[in-house]
Give the backbone structure.
Amino acid sequence: MPDQLAFDWPTGVALGPDDFFVSEANAKAFAMLSAPETWPERKLAIIGPKGSGKSHLARVFQSQNDAVLHKACDLAGGFQTTATTAIIEDMEKLPRSAEEPIFHLHNNLRNAGGLLLLTSCLPPSRWPIALPDLASRMQATTVAQIENPDDALLSALIMKLFADRQINPQPNLVQYLAARIERSFAAAADIVARLDAAALAQGRKINTALAAELLDNAD
């Protein structure tokens, strides 16, 4: 049978509070996010690998605190906001032209008793910020680290990634994958995406046989 044409449709990602799975790998970050009144200087940086749930946590925080959310890469020199609670995602991608506005935002929030949540895959000390005053303030931010997934989180993550694609895998497939892939968020996202694409292209079911073929070919 010739390969079927497969379209790379965007997948819907569930980002509600009930969709976040808490385990030892992210429990500290989740607990700190849930208690902003404990943040030193009322600011927090959530640090973790790509796909680790930083954006999910940011959106949970946004919905619970009526926060304004920005992607760092979308900010420019004319950026202004009157928000009393702000979220900036992917701080390692902050444009040079946005550094001074973010410096003023930081100070305005501190003076007003507001909250500032930051996310990044890198710790604040490694953010490429040229403005010394902003760099020093960012480096003083309390960090909540999301670690690579433990067994429980990896299995839950694989299930969620399938669910985001409206796929209901058998439990034995999730266990099979969790035992064989690299224990990382990126590896989980990669194998689920590859299984979905291969099943569509070949007109096959997503099961352990297909997973075995893909994992064998990756070696």
User: Anything to note?
Assistant: Confidence is low (pLDDT under 50) at residues 1-15. The radius of gyration is 20 Å. Residues 72 and 147 are 23 Å apart (CA to CA). Strands lie at 43-47, 68-71, 85-89, 115-120, 142-145.
